[in-house]
Amino acid sequence: MERERILLVEDDAHVAQGLYRLLVLLGYEVDCCDSSEVALEKLNMIGFDLVISDLRLPGMSGLDLLERVRRAKPVMRSILITAFHSPQAQSQACRWANAYLSKPFKMQHFAQAVQRVLQATPERLYQAESNGNHDRLGVLPESGSG
Length: 146
Hints:
Elements lengths: L4 E5 L3 H13 L3 E5 L2 H10 L4 E5 L7 H11 L4 E6 L4 H10 L2 E4 L4 H13 L2 H9 L8 E2 L6
């Protein structure tokens, strides 16, 4: 059985390292980069099942990245993470991401969001969008570090 591939886009090396380690422990194949531009190059060369991106990145924002990815590959699953939570960011994230997490979050909540997004059928992903479900597959609030 082939492992699911995740692209992690995070410019904070400590956060990237912690999330990378967790995802590998969970059995995923993970590739990391620290900018949207590099992420787009990787996405053009390698097939991924999920993109996890920070909101604030050098150059193009994570939100702009996920919008471009969704327009090019409508079935690509994605999670947006941010330390700069706001209702506006959450609302925008709901247009382009399948889940939204506000830092700091518990690693258990992060793992659950990843599993939930990867396990959802394409029909469920589209149903959440077409019903105007702004929570999509789950918006997790700030929940403390973990």
